[in-house]
Design brief:
The chain has 154 residues and is mainly β. Helix content is 8%, strand content 39%. The protein starts with 6 loop residues before the first strand and ends with a helix. Bound molecules: zinc ion.
Length: 154
């Protein structure tokens, strides 16, 4: 069976950045399962998998536009120290979950701690990055009616 709309696909993957640092990997865990055509994974990877079948291996390079988007400078802002009340020590690189304007979960990364406040970045941690995926397709099957109705794999 070839990957197309309304297939449930299971993949093993390793994601590396331009400097060959591993950012994420399914190795040692369960394969990643997603419903094809439901935007469950980034478009650049989803598009590259169309027409592939179980057993296929491929390398996919995804540009930011087809990944987590470019870095939006407006999403880097200064926050007052009081916004981090209750946290003993704020350091660059720390990440927090926050609610975005539409209630969605955002990851906020601390960029710098200065006398004027704390520089925080609400861009996705992988925004602006070229992503390199090493993918092995484990399984391709037709989605159930329930999965299609829910818009995700079970
Ligand atoms: Zn469901």
């Amino acid at each position: 069976m070839k990957i197309a709309e309304n297939c449930v696909v299971a993949i093993d993957y390793t994601l590396t950045d331009d400097d060959q640092n591993t950012l994420d990997s399914s190795s040692g865990g369960e394969p990643l399962q997603y419903l094809h055509g439901s935007q469950g994974i980034i478009p650049g990877l989803e598009n590259a998998l169309v027409g592939k079948s179980a057993g296929d291996e491929l390398k996919v390079t995804v540009q930011p536009e087809d990944g987590y988007g470019p870095v939006v400078p407006e999403l880097i802002q200064m926050a007052p120290v009081s916004a981090f009340e209750g946290i003993a020590e704020i350091k660059p690189g720390m990440q927090f979950q926050a609610k975005g304007p539409e209630g969605q979960v955002q990851i906020i990364t601390v960029k710098a701690v200065t006398d004027e406040g704390i520089a925080i970045d609400a861009n996705h941690p992988l925004a602006g990055q070229v992503l390199h995926f090493d993918v092995k397709i484990k399984e391709v099957r037709a989605a159930t009616d329930e999965e299609i109705a829910h818009g995700h794999a079970h």
